[in-house]
Write a structure and sequence with these properties.
alpha+beta; hypothetical protein yedk fold; 13 strands; single chain
């Protein structure tokens, strides 16, 4: 699975990966985040109205059809094998795929990263919930697949990673054959060039997120 990750890359290394407009305040307030947890705002790249742009969403997907967000589970992961069948995920799988930049993820006291330290893309889904009063809340989750040889000693699941250069087909809304053409990207990735390191001391974590939903403006301020 993927329940913790980091984004500590310098902004000048990250910006070339982010197409289109940036979230308000990101340039002024960007700071390395050694530990990103469920329920917190995460940076992502998505496509709306034919245009790609970076944005923020809360980690933990809230389906658009939910009436009472307080009483509904918000999964942080979606299994690649069943994403097209599950009610919470099949709509976002067709129309709301996203890319979440990271430079490491954590599993069972270990830090997993590329040997060169470069950032990479976590495969994600996003959704927009709109309340009866017009309140909007964007949320997301990370797709997972079967573990490769590197991760298997730690866990039987790992995040799906999207290779550089395949951002456009991943982000484009599609169905039918075009959607099925993405399925090979959901398979376990090659572990060559990756490193697993024991974590001797967990990174400092921010205060636990509030149980109250954050609106888009509050997410900008929390980054």
């Amino acid at each position: 699975m993927c329940g913790r990750y980091s984004l500590t890359s310098p902004l000048d290394r990250l910006l070339p990966r982010l197409d289109g407009p940036l979230p308000a305040g990101l340039l002024q307030h960007y700071a390395p985040r050694p530990l990103i947890r469920p329920g917190e705002p995460v940076l992502l790249l998505r496509r709306e109205h034919g245009r790609s742009h970076a944005d923020l969403a809360l980690w933990g997907l809230l389906p658009a059809w939910v009436k009472d967000p307080a009483g509904h589970a918000r999964p942080i992961n979606a299994r690649a094998e069943t994403v097209a069948q599950k009610a919470s995920f099949r709509g976002p799988w067709r129309h709301h795929r996203c890319l979440i930049p990271a430079d490491a993820f954590y599993e069972k006291g270990h830090h997993i990263r590329r040997c060169d330290g470069a950032p990479f893309w976590l495969a994600g889904l996003w959704e927009r919930w709109i309340g009866a009063d017009g309140t909007e809340l964007d949320t997301c989750c990370v797709l997972t697949t079967a573990a490769n040889r590197l991760i298997a000693p730690l866990h039987d699941r790992m995040p799906v990673l999207i290779p550089d250069g395949l951002e456009d087909p991943w982000l484009s809304p599609c169905d039918g054959p075009a959607l099925r053409a993405l399925e090979p990207l959901l398979q376990p990735w090659d572990d060559q060039g990756w490193l697993v390191e024991p974590v001797s001391k967990p990174p400092a974590a921010p205060p636990p997120p509030s149980d109250q939903p954050l609106d888009q403006k509050q997410m900008e301020l929390r980054w």
